[in-house]
Amino acid sequence: MNDGIALYIHIPFCKQKCLYCDFPSYCGEENKMLSYSKALSKEINRIKDKKISTIFIGGGTPTYLSLEGWNTIKESIKRLNTTDDLEFTVEGNPGTFSEDKLLLFKNIGVNRLSIGLQAWQNEHLKRLGRIHSVEEFLESFYMARKVGFENINIDLMFGLPEQSLEEWKQTLENVTNLEPEHLSCYSLIVEEGTRFYDLYDKDKLNLPDEDIEREMYRFTLQYLKENQYHQYEISNFSKHNRECKHNLVYWNLEEYLGCGSAAHSYIDGYRFRNVQNIDKYISNEVNGISPVEEKNKNSEKDDMEEFMFMGLRKIDGISTKKFNKKFRTSIYDIYGDVIKKYVSQNLLVEKEGQMFLTPRGVEISNTVMSDFIL
Ligand code: SF4
């Protein structure tokens, strides 16, 4: 992407905290929605000299933000200088949006929705602490189609407690029957600090064993390929030309701006992080204090590592030429031994200037990628 940068906007509110979630999101803070939106507007208004090519409003549950809140940030978003082919995504959960909200999204230029479903079985949704049923998901999905959203992602998860391979197959079959343009399929990771972690710690989380989980992933690849979804990243699949441009910015180590609590930015070789605490974020903005809590200059070593392990997440991997040009050195001088090792184990391939993981390499990508840390 040469003619603009990406913008991420964080909405930290959720109706209920999912049991597996370690994102900076909160429930029971609805009374702060309006003051948060005002603060957010102020921060967005400061973006003056940048052309924006993608906007991703994530969270949290952005669709849970009240209409009043949306109306508050609306004008600031409309004022942004955007490219003609802007990709503008809003993330949401079933049951948290109405036609009114969707029409407002259309009005401010949103052209992509990302809806969290996770599983097709209500007992799994309940066990995950999700706020919705499959029926509510269907209602929300059809509503979005009716309002005219032609680019929809659905988030799914596999490797859930008590989940069978059959149930995962059923999830994929039912979801692909709806023909969304994009699918994200992540395996559940039990993160420290979550309710699931406590259960796991007490041996009360009955997760599928590793072989079943691997089988679930293999089935995903094969089934989605047969159904015209092409895999372009370890966990992401799209119909022709419907890859998420915003996420590709992260994987390509390109620049992005972040607004809102806990939002990150990567500009001019610096990484910035805003305060996570909602009250602090609001009071900083009210008092004219920068919400940025941390600012670090990435060293060349950091950039090289990130270039490799973000880039290798993509199925077509990284361009060796781009690496050589960006770092003014040969990739083999830096990573020669690691490359040799994994090529000889058939986990990594170099072909026509691209370096990428083989299907087996993708399966154990965490191990391979950790070797690219210098
Ligand atoms: S809806 Fe998303 S952000 Fe909110 S608690 Fe659940 S997983 Fe976390």
Automatic annotation (TrEMBL):
Belongs to the anaerobic coproporphyrinogen-III oxidase family. HemW subfamily. The keyword Transport does not apply. InterPro entries: Aldolase_TIM, Coproporphyrinogen-III_oxidase, Elp3/MiaA/NifB-like_rSAM, HemN_C, HemW-like, rSAM, rSAM_sf. CDD domains: Radical_SAM. Its main location: cytoplasm. This is Heme chaperone HemW. It comes from Clostridium brassicae. It is found in: Cytoplasm. Transmembrane segments: none annotated. Keywords: 4Fe-4S, Chaperone, Cytoplasm, Heme, Iron, Iron-sulfur, Metal-binding, S-adenosyl-L-methionine. Residues 1-230 form the Radical SAM core domain. Probably acts as a heme chaperone, transferring heme to an unknown acceptor. Binds one molecule of heme per monomer, possibly covalently. Binds 1 [4Fe-4S] cluster. The cluster is coordinated with 3 cysteines and an exchangeable S-adenosyl-L-methionine. Gene3D superfamilies: Aldolase class I (3.20.20.70). It holds the Pfam family Radical_SAM. It comes from the Bacteria. The gene is hemW. The keyword Cytoplasm applies.
